[in-house]
Amino acid sequence: MAVIENSPEWFMNIMKTIMPNMEVAMFFQKMMVFIEIGIALCLMAGLFTWLVNGVTIVLVATFCLSGMFYWVNIWFVPVAFALMNGSGRAIGLDHWVIPWLQRTLGKWRYGRPKSLYGQK
Prior knowledge:
60% of the residues lie in helices and 0% in strands. The chain is mostly helical. It starts with 8 loop residues before the first helix and ends in a 15-residue tail after the last helix.
């Protein structure tokens, strides 16, 4: 049983604006395959876990509004929230990538953020 049987009118208007014809819709469909594979690879590697799980929640909301999402898959949302709590910093690549990004990109912002991943 679908979460929402029919898409809301405002959502259909947005979809008609974003995807005016079948060629654009096919492009988005193919692009979504690569995005979902990228999300899965990032989660398995523990890379950008907070960002990737945020994207997962947005995709779940989009799929719910489109009428293509079922109640048995609603567990994606609580799992994504649970994984947003620093899941990649212990074993994943976030342990090394996030501090490096903070060192290199942190100088562009106001202040100097400091990562606590590798400190004891």
